[in-house]
Amino acid sequence: MNVVLCGMKHCGKTTHGRLLSQHLGCNFIDTDDLLVARYEQQHGVKLSPRSIFKKHGDDYFRCLEAESVKQFGLNNNNDDETYVVALGGGVPSNPYLDYVLIKQLGVVVYLKLPPLIIFKRIIRKGIPPMFQGENPFENFTALYNKREPDYIKCADLIIELNGNETVTGTESKIIAQIEDYLYER
Question: Is position 68 within any domain?
Fold first, then answer.
């Protein structure tokens, strides 16, 4: 059974996904990496997700993201391998994807962090284009509030984090809650 991590950008999906995959002894997949690979295959140049978004805009980015997630689902639907999958922050809200498809990828876990913690993590690398303007935090909060219902709708399990835990402490909490959920099924 695959474990699929969702949540806002910088909530820890990739960091904890890698650690969780090591704990479970399985492969780790980040849909942002799939998107980058698909873009490189189509255009012959490797760009980061942020650069792809900046160069081509939201609609192009969401189409490419949806294609990448769908292709992963098709390629691994009958696969005997187990994966931990980190979804890009916008995947559950992507208008070109159905939440049913996302749920078919595996057990969906929403890593929920307070918005201010996430925002501080995001702006460490500069304010992304989608939050620029007079009040970047307000723009971020609007996006957070728009996406959160989709995270909840997709999630089989919600793990609330406060952002003050160490990576090891957070990872222990995530592993314990996921294992409890899986063994209760």
Answer: yes
CB atoms within 10 A of CB 23: 16
In a domain, 171, yes or no: yes
Supply 41's token pair.
């295959």
How far is residue 60 from each of residues 14, 21, 46, 63, 174, measured CA to CA in Å?
Answer: 23, 30, 16, 5, 33
The answer to whether residue 184 sits within a structural domain is no
Q: Going edge to edge, which strands form the sheet with 83-86?
A: 27-30, 83-86, 3-6, 107-112, 157-160
Burial 130-168 (b: 16+ CB within 10 A, else e): bbeeeebeebbeebbeebbebbeebbbbebebeeeeeee
What CATH number does residue 41 fall under? Answer: 3.40.50.300
| Domain count across the chain | 1
- pTM strictly above 0.85: yes
Kindly report which listed range (52-56, 131-135, 171-175) carries the lowest average pLDDT score.
131-135
Residue 24: phi and psi, rounded to 5, are -85, -10
Q: Which domain holds residue 58?
A: 3-178
